[in-house]
Design goal:
The structure is a single chain. By secondary structure, the protein is α/β, with parallel strands linked by helices. It has two domains: about 210 residues, Rossmann fold (3-Layer(aba) Sandwich), CATH 3.40.50; about 80 residues, Pyrimidine 5'-nucleotidase (UMPH-1), N-terminal domain (DNA polymerase, domain 1), CATH 1.10.150.340. About 40% of the residues lie in helices and about 15% in strands. It has eleven helices and eleven strands. It has a seven-stranded mixed sheet, sandwiched between helices. A two-stranded antiparallel ribbon has the order 3-4. Helix 10 links the parallel strand 10 and strand 11. Helix 4 packs antiparallel against helix 5.
Amino acid sequence: MQETEMSSTSMLRLLRLVEQDHIHITDASRVEKILSNLVAAGKQKLRVISDFDQTLSRYAFNGVRCPMSHDVIAQSNLMSEPTRAKVKKVVDYYYPKEISLTIPLSEKIQLMVDFWTQIHDIFLASNLNQRDISSTIRDSSPPLREGCDTFMSTLHRHDVPLLVFSAGLGDVIQEMFSKYNMVYPNCRVVSNFMKFDGAGKLVGFHDPLIHIFNKNKSVLPDESYFTDQRERTNVILLGDSPGDLQMADGVPNVENVLKIGYLNAHLDRLDTFTELYDIVLVQDETMDVVNSILKKILDSQT
């Protein structure tokens, strides 16, 4: 772990956040204060907001890169070989621009709109059927991070709201949660959802288009996502990219936000991540750190 301040780290040490090399915390005193505030306030004031692809789902498993939610369809046998090649060409062009540290955000936003629009247009031209899509998702969905079941069930058991905010495919996410028996009433998914006609044919995508750089209150279906429980002013935010940091925008009267970032690859971006996230987990395919923090918060009132 890298630290610039170590004036008070009792909570960090208790949670073993200062003893593991893959955990990076730049401002230990600040994180200590946030953690202490979260524990003191307890579950009544807590909400969790998380990205899905490569945050709740794994980046890699047994050394093999895992598909993201769009990939589950794009790389499947539902697509012809030429269509899969077409998708790859689009991804190879736009993905480096998505993760670029030199392209201004103002330019990236339009690039991401073009990126997802082209992918969705390929899907629409592929004569996809809802039944086949559901079957493919259940057979080929990527594994979730180790401990994700504990994460989901713990939040449900303590009635802590979880917003899964994803630029991926909501149909894939919901089908995966169903596959792994993780469908809970406290969890809401905001993502790109498919539209099907009466015969089950894919005919479109619901508006608005959600991409990595507009995951904020502007694309929420209604204000109730944040305003129904105004007393929940403490947030744990989980993501794997700089764009995920805006997911809590719109939470009213925020008091404390603990930002936990997964740096899955491109380790040359570590300095950028440690500037943006309070806690950075490098190549960690588990939910161990998050679960230990939740346990401390939730156990404080049992």
